[in-house]
Amino acid sequence: MSDRHRVTIIGAGPAGLAAAAALRAKGVRPTVYERDDVASSWRSHYDRLHLHTVRWLSGLPGMAIPRSEGPWVSRDGVIRYLEAYTAHHRIDVRTGVTVETIERADTGWLLRSPQGEEHADTVIVATGYNHTPVMPDVPGIDGYTGELRHVRDYRNGRPYAGKDVLVVGPGNTGAEISVDLVEHGAGRVRLAVRTPPYILRRAVGPIPTQLTGLAMRRVPAAIADRLAEVSRKLQVPDLSEQGLADPGPGLVTRARRGEIPVLDVGLVDAVRAGTVEPVAALAGFDGDKVLLADGGVLVPDAVIVAAGYRRGLDGLVGHLGVLDERGQPLVHGSKTHPHAPRLHFIGYTNPLSGMFREIAIDAKRIASSLHAI
After folding, report:
1. How many CA atoms lie within 13 A of 71 on its CB side?
2. Is the pTM for the entire model greater than 0.85?
3. Of these four, 25, 85, 276, 292, which has the most CB atoms within 10 Å of its CB?
4. 135-305: which CATH architecture?
5. Cα–Cα dist 30/7, whole Å
6. Which pLDDT tens digit goes with each residue over 337-364?
């Protein structure tokens, strides 16, 4: 790659930093633009959060996560690691820069921000998988008079001690928040479920479930689904009598379309004990009332929404024709769209094999592809 070829990375989270480190290992010195600070999204996550992937399979290129962080790295451990990673690789991170749009230029790309315009020959977009919070599109939400917040604004369960709380969304975040509320003394915790989650243990003895995901990567989906179903039924009891219906088979098929299983860190035991009560899906609001899909009506003290995030890429690159109907990049990693050469995306998949691990692989592939220019 020519010394005059300029590479700009947008986002100083795990994906952006991994790409920068992999490029520096090839002799390329990219600039990383970040609106807040290194690992900004991790700084805003809830206190209890840990990686669901094991430490030794979650390191980024050129620096392992220290053993002192334990097998399941905490939120604060991830922040410490990413700060140390930035310093170790001498990554040029320019904070306080909000890139609002990327436009084609005569050669390369033009990045526009309130801080000015910058030109780049290659742009790597790494603004994060969890970017824009999603709130339910249900009747009455704008007029709800009770406490309603997205999990982005949740830190821990202390403010909810003694309170009746409804958690909306049974994914990994909703499951973990429900348990956190119980452990902080919430008076009652209910979990609104639309689609029964596919639950697996985070590890079986010393073997992390992530290894199963790695083993399944090249197995045909129909076979992998059958194998996974046997494993699930050995790991997780039937919770139908407690109100959490069996999800049925299809782990790998679901994962390949972006539906990641819940890796259990306490939900199964809480449901069995009755401290977390599954209820029907959220249907709407009426004043201070929460309406459920089965006709039930609740009046909780608080509703915490764990309905996920959008990628938030529409304003940045939506006009370039590089996103699908869900706002996901049409191409990823070292590949670029035919109409957008040298515009890469990294960190927008969440596979069974682990997001950090796939980020590390994609970062090296992007660096190799750019080094060949």
Report:
1. 8
2. yes
3. 276
4. 3-Layer(bba) Sandwich (3.50)
5. 5
6. 999 999 999 999 888 889 999 999 999 9
